[in-house]
Amino acid sequence: MQEAVNQVKNDSGGRVFFVNPQSFHQISGSPFAYWTSDKVRRLFIDLPPFESEGRTVKQGLATADDFRFVRAWWEVQSEKILDAQNGPDWREDVEKFQDWCRNRTTQGKKWVPFAKGGEYSPFYADIHLVVNWENNGDELCSFKGSVIRNPNYYFRPGITWPARPLARGSFSVVPPGVIPSHVGMMIYSDIDSLRRLIGVLNSDVFIELLHLLMPRGTGNTGATLKYEIGYVTAVPIPDHISYSDSYLQLIELVNPLYNMVMAKKIALETSIDFSNLSDCTKADQALSRKRLI
């Protein structure tokens, strides 16, 4: 028996792992992550979880009938889409900005950009859907089956991601003036942290730690994954991400990537900002109010 075991060990090509089963408890949910090192598993104990230090992750609106309440932005009258770029500066007072957006929905701006997952798009999310939120969502709030989650966070800038990516997900900045959905979850933090976080979230290290928490789809399987809120909030992240000097350097790397992806997205006719491009001055003013980085 011992000879047979030794033969398997010697000929395994790295396919045999010796792991203390108790070490699996170091990771939230105790996933059977036998292939990773104990040092990596210790990160889930030694570092704080993602949802800490002022960071929070929220689900949003579930309409229960998207065919009734949701449209592509080009399917509705443009003058009835929320004009968040004309509101007060959200950088100075985000709650004042949110109140302004709510009031605009009572003044004919019934269609609000709606984050609902989407394609692989790291760094920048071009929101092409809108949801009927007339009179601050009166019809939706009274519609049977709809679920209105975390409305106090609506219209705030944040970071979103597709709920069911293929092989690897991506995290994207969402501009102010958007409502999140139950599958287009949102990360909220202070503005400076969002700038750093978008680089960390799209890094190979964060993605690999996130995949450790999942029951399947790790490695190069090409499987469809499911990025649940509980997984994202549990990933360990370095302390004081908002104040570390190394993260100031991270911004220098993220800024050109963010701007490059945004420029590419808004050049498409399906972009909600495409109509602004005919007037360069108007386009620059509109996008500068949305730009986080």
Description:
The protein has 293 residues and is α+β, with helices and mostly antiparallel strands. The protein has one domain (27-290): Adenine-n6-DNA-methyltransferase TaqI, Chain A, domain 2. The chain is built from 10 helices and 9 strands. The protein has helices spanning 2-10, 38-46, 66-69, 94-104, 134-142, 191-201, 204-212, 229-234, 245-266, 280-290; strands at 56-58, 70-72, 111-115, 123-124, 129-132, 158-160, 172-174, 179-180, 186-188. Strands 1-9-6-7-4 form a 5-stranded mixed β-sheet. It has a 4-stranded mixed β-sheet with strand order 2-5-3-8. The longest helix has 22 residues, at 245-266. Mean pLDDT is 81; it is low at 279-283.
Key terms:
alpha+beta, 293 residues, elongated, Adenine-n6-DNA-methyltransferase TaqI, Chain A, domain 2
β-strand percent reads: 5-15%
The H/E string reads: HHEHEHEEEHEEEEHHHHH
Number of folding domains?
A: 1
pLDDT under 50 segments (min length 5)?
279-283
Q: CATH H level: which superfamily?
A: Adenine-n6-DNA-methyltransferase Taqi, Chain A, domain 2
| Portion in helices | 25-40%
What's the CATH class, please?
A: Alpha Beta
Strand order of the largest sheet: 1-9-6-7-4
Distance between the termini: 62 Å
How many beta-strand elements? 9
